[in-house]
Design goal:
The structure is a single chain. The protein has helices at residues 2-21, 25-36, 41-57, 63-74, 82-97, 101-117, 123-137, 147-156, 164-180, 184-195, 205-218, 222-231, 239-255, 259-265, 272-284, 288-294. Helix 5 (82-97) runs antiparallel to helix 6. The radius of gyration is 29 Å and the shape is elongated. The protein is an all-alpha fold.
Amino acid sequence: DGLEVRHRAALKYLRGEMFRQNDQPKKALSEWTWVSKARDRLYSTKARLAKTMLELSEEIITSEEALDRLENNMRFAWRDDGLETQILQNIGMLRIKTGHYYDGLVQLKDTIRLASYNLIDTDLIVADMTSIFRHLFVDGSAQNIPALEAITIYNEFPELMPSGKDGVKAALNFAEYLVRVDLLDKAAQAIEDVLKRRDIDSAQVPVIGARLAAIYLLDDEPNKAISALQRTGRKSTPKKLYEERQLLRARALSQLDMMNEAIAVLEDMDSADADRLRADIYWRAQQWEKSAIALF
């Protein structure tokens, strides 16, 4: 009798899968509803998982409802093979879909460990995790999640960092995110780490160095700002970028109360930004008349 139940459950499960692939979701759900109640644990579990994910894709249930089913009713329904891996992978992805990025990535990482132990291919899970990391830090979506969560993800999943230009972009985006939440020292360190990368484009170095200097100035670290500019200077720097870097250098010197040196840096610059900075430097030195003249 048990064998007959299994055969019927297997047949109806496969019929459900056939209906799903033929874009007949109602018929698929009908087959899987029967199998989910059958007295066969393997096919009942497979059917409950398939039914939940199909109902989600058909918008019959929400991501939150699907996650609740899997977390509370199916997490321990089957152990130690590919079916358990599927359940746990879906739990991880649903956590992410419901906005719990860190918890989801942790679940996916744990799923990879389980799958590797059972000699199950993990390429798809790794690809999902890499895509999520890119979404957060290359595409910039990390700004939409809590600060602590974004920082924790970035620091705890370094293996997901892409290489080349995307890796540089991810690190720089993360640094800008840290600036927005006023973690200036951590932002500066993130950019310092970028400058140490071997795959960084040399043409980007003066641009990145200028941003690093600006962050150091925001953090009242003028000496470090000057150091950043010195380390990232290049002979072939475009004029506009060169002038931007000179403005940063002058502002750093001004913060060090080196007024004459700061003014000397601006000597050959006649832009509106240079004039405003001259006025600011003179104002800082309490030379009110020269400050006013610099603006007119």
